[in-house]
Amino acid sequence: MSDTKKLVEIEHLQQYFPAGGRGKNKRFVQAVDDVSFFINKGETLGLVGESGCGKTTVGRTLLRLYEPTDGKIIYDGETIFDKKAKIAVNMLPYRKKMQMVFQDPYASLDPRMTIGDIVGEPIDIHKLASSKADRRERIISLLDKVGLNSEHANRYPHEFSGGQRQRVGIARALAVNPEFIVCDEPVSALDVSIQAQVVNMFEDLQRDLGLTYLFIAHDLSVVKHISNRIGVMYLGKLVEIADSWELISNSAHPYTKSLISAIPEADPKTARATHRIPLEGDVPSPLNPPSGCRFRTRCPYATEKCAESCPSLKEVSPGHWAACHLL
Q1: Which residues make Cβ contacts (< 8 Å) with residue 93, sequence separation at least 6?
Q2: b/e burial code for range 52-75 (CB count within 10 A of at least 16 → b)
Q3: Which residue of 38, 91, 316, 318 has the fewest CB atoms within a 10 Å radius of its CB?
């Protein structure tokens, strides 16, 4: 990448959801706690971790679909949210620049709207079409970009397969010519054969339109294929972030090592040689996370220090950061 300008930055992002109780007894689900990273223009940052670790919440909070509890969000040099400075700009102009492809293609499309109207809705909201004919032309061109044709525009979502619906969701995200797209597990609800097609389409669109992605998934093999850099989350915390190849080959955090050891290996010889690192126990509740390092209850190397203080991200090698006391 010749242009390494930061497009998106988040600093100490926090998202707590109220979970009952009053006064001193008020409880919160600590979905995202003190997460900081940046995404350069034109790159893909993959975000991985098991279900419930806060990946989707990071994506939605970053787009301010959820108002952050604390932290700072910077887009293209402009601060769009800063809790301490009491900055919270109107997001409507930024909705044209930042879009999202949702995880479930069945739930994210309105069953009462035709495909043409679903894709045309962002064009109407932002008044991007000069006439009805121009609107129609834009919709057909968007459907064409994602591998659907003009006669699909008059059909309804229930007439499509999961993979086709996800393509409609992608066309809708592209309707406003965004620069940045949060892809929230866009292939997890699809068949394996369709997953590869959709991932390749994301790569083609990025190359043709110069897009920047935050690609959220729990399947490391998909993420390593599409991402320039990968961040690993565990129970609301970012535990490691590095270049894609560096993270897969030289992971530093015990949790990342366990995730990587779980990637299925096609070659039987290699599979027999690789050592699987199983994790003990279950993920603790984000309502009541463990003290100190959140991973310590399942970590085979945990010491007393891990219970006392939470490790901060340290640079292990250039561009490779990990949060572990034992590094």
Answers
A1: none
A2: bbbbbbbbbbbbbebebbbbbbbb
A3: 318
